[in-house]
Amino acid sequence: MPNALINGVELYYETHGNGLPLVLVAGLGSDSQSWQPILDALSKQYLVITFDNRGVGRTGPQDVELSVPLIADDCVALIRHLGFSSVYLLGHSMGGLVALELATRFPDIAQKLILAATSVPVSSRNKTLFRRWASWLESGMELEPWFRSIFFWLFSARFFENTVAVADTVRFAVEYPYPQSAIAFRNQVEAIANYSCSGLAKVCPRTLVLGGQDDLLFPLANCARMAQEIPRATFKVIDNAAHSLHWEEPQAFAKSVLEFLADS
């Protein structure tokens, strides 16, 4: 898969399928591979573009300057590098902040916007929590208990009833061949903490806000409140899912996305 020299970083990206372009922006500590559960469903109808945000995955160097606006700039530059003037845009968690930033500063680029498991402003509780995760990683905490501690916030209680799935998910995370460095994770955490949306009323495209029924990080009430402030937004709940809603309920997630994009 290709890399593009964009804004001083070697940006890793992938394209899947054919059709109108749909760009997916991953969240904190996640990269292009985080979309695997829904990639097949979406790429049957769209040209799906995924990439590793600066500071994660195969995009390098990992210790580069990092902020939500800079990631949005990278996304815009990648879209133009691929020859598109506008795209459909989907962001999850921190990726939702990036999508909001792009939609407010580059209103002609996002034809439709999907914001999954995200809301602004980011709560003081979340900023403190994310910074604690960063401190644990910087302290040299072993990766298995580190990921397990984070997963309690990402997945619903029912996910942990399947001990095999939990073990497989932890193993995948620990053995992932493109790990994020502690400094890069800290930089992403601070990017979230320092981000201030310039105004939800400025979001022009039709928008779908998706919330996980059991999301502890970005509760439904916060997502619904944000949807009310975006002029052309619709709010939808994904049942039986927490923050990683596209992992726990990939079929329901993909169906919601595809129906929204197909609706003229």
TrEMBL record:
Its EC number is 1.11.1.18. This is Putative non-heme bromoperoxidase BpoC. It is an enzyme of class 1 (oxidoreductase). GO terms for molecular function: bromide peroxidase activity. Keywords: Oxidoreductase, Peroxidase. InterPro entries: AB_hydrolase, AB_hydrolase_1, AB_hydrolase_fold. Residues 21-250 form the AB hydrolase-1 domain. Coiled coil: none annotated.
